[in-house]
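Record type: monomer structure entry
Structure origin: computed from sequence
Chain ID: A
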Amino acid sequence: MAGSGEGLAELARLREILNSIKEETPGVRALAVISYDGFVIESFMPSSVDEDLMAAMGSSVLSIAERMGIDLRLGDFELGIVCGSDGYLLLTRAGREAILILLVNKDVKLGVALYMAKRAAARVAEALEGVSIEELVAARWG
């Protein structure tokens, strides 16, 4: 298990990755990496968004979507989409223990947003490989 100094360094690296994803992906209003337990690991959220509530709800939505996929024999969960009148919420796995959430403007082509979400999740998953999610949560909230 990484020490708290390593956890802080890993959080800084994750923040750099999220920042580059936000800059490279048109129409992304906000994004976050959360744990399956519903804790924020790292995020870029506007102050109007309660990131803790968003993380808890995002974890619940993903859990329900995974269960529906199993019960309906759709295979493994890949990506969830919530469509609102002003934008999209995209949820996808980012490795075995993390979830990537993106809030995307409605004027963005959905196909482009889905492609970028999958690409971003792969980058986050790679960065988190071998990293203790519990350690990152503790480093952020510790």
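Annotation 1: The mean pLDDT is 90.
Annotation 2: The helical segments are 4-24, 51-71, 110-128, 133-141.
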